[in-house]
What does this fold into?
Amino acid sequence: MTTSVAIPRITIDSNCVVGLFDQTSATATSVDELRNLMRYALSGVIRIAVTTKVEVDFARDRNDQRRNAMLEQMTMLPVIASTFRLDESRLDNPDVTFGPLQRSLWDEIQRIVFPGLTENSGKRVNKIADVDHLLGHKLAARDVFVTDDRDILRRYSELRDGPGIIVMSPEQCLRYTDAHFARQEKWPLEPTGGVNAYRDTRLRGTVSFDYSNNNHRFVIGEGLSLFETQWSKASNTCIYALSDAPSIDSIALAKGAVSIAKVQDAAAYDFSSRLRMPNIGEIVLWRNLNGVYAATQILVIKDDERGADHDELCFEFVILSGGSSDFSQG
It folds into this structure.
């Protein structure tokens, strides 16, 4: 199975539309960051959209010339649905009516971002619109909601852990997109230092080495498919694997897999930590800077502090050089 790099789907808030299309406005913020995000969008690296509530927000602008100019500029962006409201939504737009799921989700977002919102709350209309934006983003299953609204940004953790909404400022989203773009760019990799005795250029095999030497690294593969695996002492039954080497993007532990061939989709595992501690028999998954996957299964661990005369690690490895994430086809 060959996998392609998913294109991040970004939803931008109304304040970001102002920063993008009306840079002369006194309220425009993050102008440079938003311009760079739009360049990425025009290049196909990301996909930017707005919700129907952006048009509603601009409809409140009393400056007819500015409002019309902004609405015209907005036509270049895809529009996603939000909540249907009789006093706002047009009959020809894609807004959806509230069902039990939408109502429950809207209430959860509102409690997180604007707890205690009542009929008499200040800027109530604007706050309701903010919740509508976030709901539309979530219902469309998009990846990142970008805003300069501090009320929303400071609720990052609660929105992530509750309804599963990732919010970022334009600056944060640009860093996220830069990293995504770097992973798409492929180039031959070379090990940083070390000696050839700690290197195997094959795409599969079994190696044994003293993991206390060569800066704890053993290099497998070459070119686009090079991996500087890095290890550190734990015991004679488990060992630390680290993603610190320059060629490595991230690592994961293939929990539950009894052999490398049982890993059918490496991308489905958790690559969020720089350090993993596999036991003998367990499998570490490695993703390099080119998005290529490798798997290493721990076979033997020797520890000179636990009865062995030297430190030694023996592992079996497989590299998927063709861009796949399915080791069962290897």
